[in-house]
Amino acid sequence: MEQICTSGAVRKNKNSSYFAEWLPHNVKTAVCDIPPRGLKMSATFIGNNTAIQELFKRISEQFTPMFRRKAFLHWYTGEGMDEMEFTEAESNLNDLVSEYQQYQDATAEEEEFEECTEEEEVA
Predict the structure, then answer these.
(1) Phi, psi (5° rounding) for residue 63?
(2) In 15-116, where does DSSP find H-type helix?
(3) pLDDT tens digits for 24-68?
(4) Which sequence ranges are marked TM in the entry (predicted)?
(5) 14 Cβ partners below 8 Å, 6+ apart?
(6) Phi and psi at residue 6, in whole multiples of 5°?
(7) Residue 49 CB: number of other CB atoms within 10 A?
(8) Selected residue with higher pLDDT from 52 and 122
(9) Which of 3, 16, 18, 95 is deepest in the core (most CB within 10 A)?
(10) What is the CATH number of the domain that holds 34?
């Protein structure tokens, strides 16, 4: 268990810019002692951070020039899609990136959150 916690802490410190500072407990660790049949160990990671915005940015950067050239567009319009649907999807993707950036840049002073006590969490 110690190795798992250490590894998680190293990863979090290495990528600290992607973790919102106003969300102090954004990584949780749980261990199941019984691995799947035939394996010595198994792991799952579920993270809540803003790093996914980099993937969305890359997709947008690749999509925009292709869409401007109308590359492969005929395949989609031939099946009933409209160019406006692509424009709307591009706009939605850019809005999503902006929203992730906003959360990444947010600080604890900008947001007011109430801490739950242990009794409230159980209820």
Answers:
(1) -70, -45
(2) 52-68, 73-77, 83-105
(3) 666 777 777 788 899 887 777 777 778 899 999 999 999 999 999
(4) none
(5) none
(6) -65, -45
(7) 19
(8) 52
(9) 18
(10) 1.10.287.600
